[in-house]
DNA sequence: CATGTTTGTTAGTAAACCTTACGAACGAAA
DNA sequence: TTTCGTTCGTAAGGTTTACTAACAAACATG
């Protein structure tokens, strides 16, 4: 029995549609496609865009005139090239027409804010001491910082991106952030009302992984481990951020490592990742060891041992994740003097020895190049993505 | 500086478009949407579909007439209901017009095949002994079984779905399957050429997780652990299967567990999951313990200890994955006499004690209800998804 | 200077959905 | 029995979208 009259093959795009599509959605898709292409490749002509997107020159021209009408795209004169044919008119995203405001609330004692260009460059930054403020007082600090940063913008603001510690849902409600004393804090909605600007709130580690993806040249599958006062992770699979069923994806700080016990954690368990790896724990351990050491050489060796063990622990906890997701790229974010040395070396060695290296490709582990601005830049990516569909 | 003239908000659908969209793609999306709705809800009128999909009655009628032309949808008389207005004409997927052929190659010694209805019910099944065949001989066994099963179909065949052990890429090439002696075996393409039918080849655990999702009422985020001669996992996030950068997602069989050593594994490492949990290892350990036990009570306790320890090991390795992905649902597939008891109890207890239970929701772990047919049914889901966009 | 090439635009076409309108079929009330 | 309102499915016409075809402008080259 053969497949006589069997239905046509469905393309990947049509797998499990969840919503109806109308003609106007086509326009939005293609408009964003053009913008995205221009954002990434920069200076291009209409004909270039047509070739790259597969759309016709006519359609691209039409979309471009719409985008120019919104001041999102500008013409930059003609291409200087000695070729036959009419010279191309170069286009680019109008990178100075708008700015992005970002806040990083993940610092333990200090909130940071900045104005960024559409390219993710920090143009100016501000800080506010948290000074132990919690709950509504902490919200006031955030609102105050936001107003300050907004005032420093020198172009229309495309939107506001905020990276917050804790568990943040898709609507930008901070479900739980112990450090700031927030529970079910509707941060996005409140700040949107207060400022009249589009606001996006995401978890800090999720913001960080977006920054690494967009600006750090990272792959489509990526795990970023952010080490600070706590330890969290951001996860990108197929270029999409993973949030988890209860928006707590990446919350690996209180997963227990290994089958021996470990240091007691504030959460009550023993051997949590955070008890091994958080910055306060590491600095305290290093301080103790240095104080007890007889000679500088002894001290150095003791410090190296501490960092190596911490790195090994990180490798142990990441190995199942790397195996289950077949991850090839892991990025660390945090104090380089702690992470970038024996620690990361031990982590990658542990990972390689505990997973099946053959067949699964070669694992890469590196420090982020984004430095301290990683959350700010990631929050900006959220804004670009939400407002322009670009990143 | 405010957002004067800031561009419109982009919907989620437009985030990162990668391809141009044409008007005909709309049609495909909406056609599939209608088919999907009908597949899941069954008996519905055109007006019902219009209300549920958001499309107009006119558009739904047009799509339905197209689908009826392909014999995919049929009318089933009028609704028997005492209501004002013209009675509705009930529609349904023509569930007997097509059948699906599935193969399960994951058995250690035996290959299974079946004809399934569009609902995923097994209509008839066949088996072939592998008899140690490897490489090209194993391929011949598969082709022979496939021909047998195809001959038993009693309706046009929608397509062929195959669940294979090992690493399978998106094109259905089996990159590596030690048990079958395959390396870069283009199974999908070869069988497609041989049969003239659409063929889809996926990893067996990935097929299984699709079956659990479609037929087992599972959630959108789901991890399925398949315990057999080896141990593998299938992962679903947001309703989408995760394949991994090198198509090896779910290959957790050779990840090392814990910080004490463990049994030596065939891969050379000590303490791999497979060394703790594979069916041969467990049955051997149980056999030894039973033989050494003085009394039946001793034997029972020893068996329980072995299964509890295996379950604990599974919990240890899954904890970081569950934490990192914020998974709430885990399903086990394999011999229930081994898995469904002390083992699964120990796994879920270990998971709960090693992850942050609060905030992340309550974890569920259960046996699959799909039994031995799970891979066959999952392979059928692949066909439904590829050919009709339905599942 | 004629020719060929490339760019961007104009005009017309096809596909998809929508809105509006209508006949058919039914229950309920006058 | 007749009238009215409701619901279903279809028909006709309009809008949006991107496409094809054709063209003018601007340039290099022989």
Q: What would you say this structure looks like, in words?
A:
Two copies of one chain form a homodimer. With 391 residues, chain A is α/β, with parallel strands linked by helices. Chain A has three domains: 74 residues, Winged helix-like DNA-binding domain superfamily/Winged helix DNA-binding domain (Arc Repressor Mutant, subunit A), CATH 1.10.10.10; 127 residues, Nucleotidyltransferase, domain 5 (2-Layer Sandwich); 152 residues, 2-Layer Sandwich (Nucleotidyltransferase, domain 5). In chain A, 40% of the residues lie in helices and 20% in strands. Chain A has twelve helices and 15 strands. A five-stranded mixed beta sheet of chain A has the order 5-4-3-6-10, sandwiched between helices. Chain A binds a DNA duplex (30 and 30 nucleotides) through α1 and α3.
Give the SSE layout.
The structure is a homodimer of 391-residue chains.
Chain A: H1 23-41, H2 46-53, H3 57-69, E1 73-78, E2 89-93, E3 99-104, E4 110-117, E5 122-129, H4 136-151, E6 157-164, E7 167-168, E8 174-177, E9 182-185, H5 187-195, E10 199-203, H6 204-215, E11 222-227, E12 231-237, E13 240-241, H7 273-277, H8 279-292, H9 296-325, E14 329-333, H10 336-339, H11 342-354, E15 364-367, H12 374-388
Parallel strand pairs in A: 3-6, 6-10, 11-14, 14-15
Antiparallel strand pairs in A: 1-2, 3-4, 4-5, 7-8, 8-9, 11-12, 12-13
Chain A binds a DNA duplex (30 and 30 nucleotides) through residues 20-24, 26-27, 30, 45-47, 55-62, 82-89.
């Amino acid at each position: 029995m053969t497949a006589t009259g069997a239905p046509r093959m469905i393309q990947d795009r049509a797998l499990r549609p969840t919503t109806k599509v109308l003609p106007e959605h086509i326009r939005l898709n293609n408009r964003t496609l053009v913008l995205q292409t221009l954002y990434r490749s920069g200076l291009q002509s209409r004909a270039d865009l047509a070739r790259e997107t597969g759309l016709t020159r006519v359609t691209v021209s039409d979309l471009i005139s719409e985008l120019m009408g919104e001041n999102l795209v500008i013409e930059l004169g003609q291409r200087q090239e000695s070729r036959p044919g009419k010279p191309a008119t170069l286009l680019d995203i109008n990178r100075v027409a708008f700015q992005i405001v970002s806040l990083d609330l993940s610092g333990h004692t200090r909130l940071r804010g900045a104005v960024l260009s559409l390219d993710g460059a920090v143009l100016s930054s501000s800080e506010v001491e948290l000074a132990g403020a919690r709950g509504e007082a902490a919200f006031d600090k955030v609102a105050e910082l936001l107003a300050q940063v907004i005032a420093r913008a020198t172009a229309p603001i495309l939107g506001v991106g905020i990276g917050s510690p804790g568990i943040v849902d898709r609507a930008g409600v901070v479900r739980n952030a112990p450090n700031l004393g927030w529970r079910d804090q509707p941060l996005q909605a409140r700040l949107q009302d207060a400022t009249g600007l589009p606001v996006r709130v995401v978890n800090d580690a999720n913001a960080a992984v977006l920054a690494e993806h967009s600006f750090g040249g990272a792959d489509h599958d990526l795990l970023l481990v952010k080490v600070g006062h706590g330890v969290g992770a951001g996860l990108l699979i197929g270029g999409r951020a993973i949030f988890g069923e209860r928006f707590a994806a990446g919350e690996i700080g209180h997963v227990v490592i290994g089958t021996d016990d470990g240091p007691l954690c504030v959460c009550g368990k023993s051997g949590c990742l955070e008890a091994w790896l958080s910055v306060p724990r590491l600095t305290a351990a290093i301080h103790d060891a240095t104080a007890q050491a007889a000679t500088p050489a002894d001290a150095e060796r003791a410090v190296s041992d501490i960092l190596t063990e911490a790195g090994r622990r990180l490798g142990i906890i990441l190995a199942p994740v790397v195996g289950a997701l077949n991850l090839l790229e892991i990025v660390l974010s945090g104090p380089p003097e702690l992470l970038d040395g024996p620690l990361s070396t031990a982590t990658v060695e542990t990972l390689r020895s505990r997973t099946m290296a053959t067949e699964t490709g070669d694992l890469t582990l590196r420090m982020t190049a984004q430095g301290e601005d990683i959350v700010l830049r990631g929050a900006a990516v959220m804004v670009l993505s939400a407002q322009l569909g670009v990143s």
